[in-house]
């Protein structure tokens, strides 16, 4: 066996050993099961829904529980409104196991368990920031967590060996470890996930009342800002209710910012009005530039818009010719114009690559509809 083969085998080897019990066989729970089983880990699945459990097992996310199971680690992947109840039950039923959960809110279940007087020494909250538009075991996939942040919330009672198990879980599924307190986590997701959901839903709600003529003008901007509005209301009622305080604080701040801009738009010719609007847009520019991009870097990319005929193989040909030009695609967005036989591919590249990419593609017959240097 070659040294490179040995290195790959060590890299693919699971950090976890023994049995991992996953409670909740929906999208996150079943995806964890698939990812761990791909590493050779023994995964036991449990779910309140017998049909959901059978479906996840049929898809290969894990096996059914046996009486002699002795899990070292338990992952609770259930809806937020029952997370605390299931954590309490699992801690009692498996006194030798470490219990973590993957709920999107961390402080509320932790505080609720403390109010009940539960010994939380063996409990470590965590949260993988990953998901899909569709839920359920049928949508689960082993690569769901690769390259995604996984927050672990330790406290002063956390034992190093227990923490190592939860960290091994995150690393085995390919996630990137982050450590936060429950308070820090909930404030962070309020800003980066929960408030965007509310804002997107409120904006998309206006589309429900719009006339058909207006909707025909919808471009990538409105699609980008409303994409997550398709999320399930039942789940978000639970999430927002469990993290209401930081969400309300941020919504109030947004309302204050709106009150500063609205008078300027009511009287755009008034002294200082244009500056107020420009400052609001500029502050948005600064915020976007702070978002981590590819490989976690805070980098600004340039974009070009390429017209792509709506025929098979055209997008693949575009990527192939960009590769021949030595241009790395940093990001991609596709927009289809209603009634048109072509789409618009908005491609982000490193600034130094933009001009060469445009010239090279035009020489190969591609039509460039615009770029950030225009």
From TrEMBL:
Record EC number = 1.3.1.12
- The UniProt record lists the Prephenate/arogenate dehydrogenase domain at 18-299
Keywords associated with the record: Amino-acid biosynthesis, Aromatic amino acid biosynthesis, Oxidoreductase
Is this entry keyworded Transferase?
no
Q: In which pathway does it act?
A: Amino-acid biosynthesis
Catalytic class of the enzyme: oxidoreductase
SUPFAM superfamilies recorded for this chain?
Answer: 6-phosphogluconate dehydrogenase C-terminal domain-like (SSF48179), ACT-like (SSF55021), NAD(P)-binding Rossmann-fold domains (SSF51735)
Q: Give the molecular function GO annotations.
A: prephenate dehydrogenase (NAD+) activity
Q: Which InterPro entries match?
A: 6-PGluconate_DH-like_C_sf, ACT-like_dom_sf, NAD(P)-bd_dom_sf, PDH_C, PDH_N, Preph/Arog_dehydrog, Prephen_DH
> Which protein family is it in?
Belongs to the prephenate/arogenate dehydrogenase family.
State the protein's name.
Prephenate dehydrogenase
């Amino acid at each position: 066996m070659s040294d490179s083969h040995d290195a790959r085998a060590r890299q693919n080897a699971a950090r976890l050993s023994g049995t991992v019990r996953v409670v909740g066989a929906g999208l996150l729970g079943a995806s964890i099961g698939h990812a761990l089983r791909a590493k050779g880990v023994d995964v036991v699945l449990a779910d309140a829904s017998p049909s959901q459990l059978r479906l996840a097992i049929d898809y290969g996310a894990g096996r059914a529980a046996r009486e002699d199971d002795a899990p070292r680690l338990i992952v609770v992947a259930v809806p937020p409104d029952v997370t605390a109840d299931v954590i309490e039950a699992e801690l009692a039923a498996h006194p030798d196991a470490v219990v973590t959960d993957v709920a999107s809110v961390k402080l509320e279940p932790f505080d609720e368990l403390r109010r009940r007087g539960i010994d939380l020494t063996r409990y470590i909250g965590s949260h993988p920031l990953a998901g899909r538009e569709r839920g359920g075991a049928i949508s689960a996939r082993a690569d769901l967590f690769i390259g995604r942040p996984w927050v672990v919330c330790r406290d002063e009672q956390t034992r190093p060996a227990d923490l190592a198990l939860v960290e091994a879980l995150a690393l085995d599924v390919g996630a990137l470890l982050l450590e936060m307190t429950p308070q820090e986590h909930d404030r962070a997701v309020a800003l980066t996930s929960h408030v965007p959901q509310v804002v997107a839903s409120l904006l998309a709600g206006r589309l429900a009342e719009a006339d058909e003529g207006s909707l025909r003008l919808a471009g990538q901007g409105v699609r980008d800002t409303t994409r997550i509005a398709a999320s399930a209301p039942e789940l978000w009622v639970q999430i927002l209710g469990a993290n209401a305080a930081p969400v309300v604080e941020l919504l109030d701040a947004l309302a204050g910012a709106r009150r500063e801009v609205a008078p300027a738009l009511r009287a755009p010719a008034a002294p200082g009005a244009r500056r107020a609007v420009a400052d609001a847009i500029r502050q948005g520019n600064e915020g976007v530039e702070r978002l981590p991009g590819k490989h976690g870097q805070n980098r600004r990319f340039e974009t070009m818009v390429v017209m792509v005929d709506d025929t098979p193989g055209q997008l693949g040909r575009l990527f192939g010719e960009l590769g021949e030009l030595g241009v790395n695609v940093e990001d991609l967005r596709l927009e289809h114009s209603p009634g048109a036989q072509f789409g618009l591919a908005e491609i982000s590249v490193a600034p130094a690559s933009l001009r060469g990419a445009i010239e090279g593609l035009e020489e190969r017959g591609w039509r460039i509809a615009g770029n950030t240097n225009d």
